[in-house]
Amino acid sequence: MTENDENDKKMQRSNPTKLKLVTFTGAAGLLGLAVSFAIFAFNSHKQKSKKKGLPGCDTVCVNLSAKEILDLADEIISISTRVHDAVALVPLNKLSYENVVLPLAELEARQLPLIQSCVIPKMLSPHDNVRKASAEAELKIDAHLLSCRCFVDSMIPFGLLSSWIELMMVSLCKLIRKREDVYRVIRIYAAKGESISPEAKRYLQCLVRDFEHNGLHLTATKREEVDRLRNEIDELSLRYVQNLNEDSSCLFFTESELAGLPLEFLQVFNRNSLDKTQNNEFKLTLESNHVAAILELCKIAKTRKTVAMAYGKRCGDANIPVLQKLVQSRHRLARLLGYAHFADYALDHRMSKTSTRVIRFLEDISSTLTDLASRELSFLKDLKRKEEGELPFGVEDLLYYIKRVEELQFDLDFGDIRQYFPVSLVLPGIFKICQDLFGIKIEEVTEIDVWYYDVRAFAVFDSGSGKLLGYFYLDMFSREGKFSQSCVVALQNNALFSNGACQIPVALLIAQFAKAGGEALPLGFSEVVNLFHEFGHVVQHICNRASFARFSGLRVDPDFREIPSQLLENWCYESFTLKLISGYRQDITKPLVDEVCKTLKRWRYSFSALKSLQEILYCLFDQKIYSDDDVDFHQLIRSLHPKVMLGLPVVEGTNPASCFTRAVIGSEATCYSRLWSEVYAADIFASQFGDGHPNLYNGLQFRDKVLAPGGGKEAMELLTSFLGREPSTEAYIESRSKYSL
């Protein structure tokens, strides 16, 4: 009997009801023990702490103490090291799926909930010591994962990277491995061409790709250069963001120069950074919320232009050289890894595949929307002429005059509309839409351990068979110390293990709704839309039935990831839904009237062509700087801007290269992806759910053909199978034309 066998028996004696062994044979025995120990260690924490978790879900623990978090982090690192060491030591003449691929796949599946149990408290715990321990644990785990290059972006956002938040919140990572000994074993096994299932083959291909994207197939000299370039890219990206965060530019205006801004705006920001000087002027710092308010509400054209110019010039002298060097470094990295330029590297394993296809996608939509956008722009120019005379219309006028038209044409008081959306109606309404659409049943789970008193948990069942599909938590209200963004986080992914056991998915939805006097306040309409969107991620996570954790949950093609949520958003604007989720104040029998429902849909698409062109402009800028060498940023924006924006020139002296964080970190060469998903979601909704009512048959088809396979199949293959054709841009264009001026 080995020492490990003796330890195994001791574990079973000390915790006979909780220990669940994953059985391996032969060379995989040590791996099975390591994974089993992970489960034992975690359940020991739960048993000692007397935590009551989700029924039948032993591996997710949401309320560990500070000490338990740090202890568990050490165990995670130890187990991960042992498993990788064991794979590396498998004799080359005995390599098999069972002792090479399967141990890594099962470790990956079991490790995620353990890691999340350690790092999620940093975002949500009400206790300072627990948040501190969680942050410390995250650093330890990250250091380990980086040391063996098993980088897991477990959907925890980085403090400075606000432009990366949404991506990080709805994704579970690429695994980027850099253990050469493990790579050698995997590469040799892959070369054998052993017959395995299609999903297992895809997983093996992903393992090899992850290693090689990190340069493991290169010579030692080139690997050193890859490391150097990655470090340089990280340093340049951080410097770019820090420059913007530290920018202290400000402007001074008299009250008359801020005409149109409501008194409460001046009062609120006067207490913060919009301060009055001794000359009776307001000091305006260039924070995005201040700038947006000026551009949308200020009646004075000169003020709007001055603010737009100052905002667009931020950090120009400092950041444009940084971005130039950053782009060059990314191109060099891509070429070392076998790509022509960085865009090809970034897009290689996405739906879009190539930069050429992305640019064609963007330019096709732009040209198709040109006529509609021209009519919209003419309408705005006419209105400005009536209100301000013959002053030229600039891009800095767009927000203000779009807002003016909405005020004149739409009888919408969003303050009053808010009174129609109490959480007590909106949430059950969303549940009903999803239940009727996807064939699921949602039931609240009570008397379980949570990290805050108003956190709720729910179980999701298949409505036909009654089978448990997964769980989700709702942490819906803002509070001190809580992470400040709305997002969905994967706590555990679906996975099928070698012994036949199935690990069910668990998701967490974090929102930021307000309370007053302990009671939930009604939701603004934008909050309703956001809740639909985020709950789409919950449904996507739970309905993903991929056998490998690598392909389940939200770990799907990034170009596809937002499509289910964008699809669900469409129901927010349907009369059927709005009446279901609304009730005026205390009289919940009084929903929104038909006319308001219709007006909300018209409002959704007001000036949507112009808004789309603005987004396309920045997506093209991002794509072009990463798909060509030695791009002159100034020349590029000066040629792109009037071409895309119907002759409107770029604001004098500005260049997005100086303050375009999405193109620097988080969405570099992939800024198009949000529009890509919105376009294809519009196609799905119009062709399959066009009447606005939940269609159970088509909803089940979407669940089975699109959501269930997850990342185990190519995303374009899934959509084509569901639609019976390749997705199209027509519905996106038609929806905007239908509600045009």
UniProtKB/TrEMBL annotation:
InterPro entries per record: MetalloPept_cat_dom_sf (IPR024079), Neurolysin/TOP_dom2 (IPR024077), Neurolysin/TOP_N (IPR024080), Pept_M3A_M3B (IPR045090), Pept_M3A_M3B_dom (IPR001567)
Swiss-Prot/TrEMBL cofactor(s): Zn(2+)
Domain Peptidase M3A/M3B catalytic positions: 296-735
Ribonucleoprotein as UniProt keyword: no
Coiled coil location: 219-246
Transmembrane segments: 21-42
Textual note on the cofactor: Binds 1 zinc ion.
SUPFAM superfamilies given in the database record: Metalloproteases ('zincins'), catalytic domain
Pfam families tied to this protein: Peptidase_M3
Alphabetical keyword list: Coiled coil, Hydrolase, Membrane, Metal-binding, Metalloprotease, Protease, Transmembrane, Transmembrane helix, Zinc
Family: Belongs to the peptidase M3 family.
Name assigned to this protein: Peptidase M3A/M3B catalytic domain-containing protein
The organism of origin for this protein: Brassica napus
